[in-house]
Design brief:
Distance between the termini: 49 Å
Oligomer: single chain
Number of helices: 11
Largest sheet: 2 strands, antiparallel
Number of strands: 2
Structural class: mainly alpha
Mean pLDDT: 83
Shape: elongated
Length: about 200
C-alpha cells in the first residue's frame, strides 16, 4: 500500500499511522520499500494481508474502500488517469457497482489502445460480475451493452471475424437488445447505436 494514499484516505492522524506502521515493521508483518516518489509498504505474505482483511467488518471494509476510491479520485487524478482500474476495484469493494463499472470501461479502453487484449478480457469478466449486481434489470442490460461495445475491438483482433467467441458476442448482443426493448418499450440512443453495430457484425 502506498503511504501517501494511506495518509489521505485514513481517519487517523499521520503520527498515529506512522506508529502503527513501525509496529507492523518491528513485528515483521510488513516491509517498507523506499521509492523516489514516496514509500510503499508490503505485507510479507498474502496470508497476513488476507487475515487482516478478514478481521474487518463488512461495513468497515466498505468504508475503507470508499475512502480510498474517493482519495484516488480527488487527490491523485494523474494516477487514476493512468490506471482507472484502481478506482474500479475500490468502488466495487464499497458496493458502488455502477461507478465501478464505468471506471472499468475506462481501463478497458486504455488496454485496447495498448493492444493488451488478454488483460482486457480478464478485466471484462470482473466488470460483468459487477454488472450482474446492479440495482435494476434495465441498468444491467444497458451496462452489458456498453461492455459489448468496449470489447468489440478486442474480439475483432483476437477472434479473426467469425470465430466462436465473436459469434457468441453477436448473439448475446441481440439478446440484450431484445431484452432492452421488452423492458422499456422504446429505443434509447444506446439501443439504436448498438442495434446498428450488431447488424453490421453479421456481414
Amino acid at each position: 500500500f502506498d503511504y501517501e494514499l494511506l495518509i489521505k484516505s485514513s481517519l487517523k492522524a499521520e503520527s498515529d499511522i506512522q506508529t502503527d506502521l513501525n509496529w507492523l515493521i518491528d513485528k515483521e508483518l510488513v516491509v517498507k520499500m523506499r521509492h523516489s516518489d514516496g514509500n510503499t509498504y508490503f505485507f510479507r505474505h498474502a496470508m497476513i494481508r488476507d487475515a487482516a482483511h478478514d478481521r474487518m467488518s463488512d461495513k468497515n471494509s466498505k468504508d475503507v474502500h470508499f475512502r480510498i476510491a474517493e482519495s484516488l479520485i480527488h487527490e491523485f487524478p494523474t494516477r487514476v488517469d493512468d490506471n482507472p482500474y484502481q478506482v474500479a476495484k475500490h468502488k466495487a469493494g464499497a458496493t458502488q457497482y455502477e461507478p465501478a463499472v464505468n471506471y472499468g470501461f475506462k481501463m478497458i479502453n486504455k488496454l485496447v489502445a495498448r493492444s493488451s487484449n488478454a488483460e482486457a478480457i480478464k478485466i471484462s469478466t470482473e466488470i460483468q460480475s459487477w454488472i450482474g449486481v446492479l440495482d435494476t434489470e434495465i441498468a444491467q442490460v444497458e451496462k452489458e451493452l456498453e461492455l459489448v461495445e468496449h470489447m468489440l475491438p478486442v474480439y475483432t483482433m483476437i477472434s479473426m471475424w467469425g470465430k466462436e467467441q465473436y459469434e457468441s458476442l453477436t448473439e448475446r448482443s441481440f439478446q440484450l437488445l431484445n431484452n432492452y426493448a421488452k423492458l422499456t418499450g422504446e429505443s434509447s440512443d444506446l439501443y439504436k447505436y448498438s442495434a446498428g453495430r450488431t447488424e453490421w457484425m453479421l456481414f
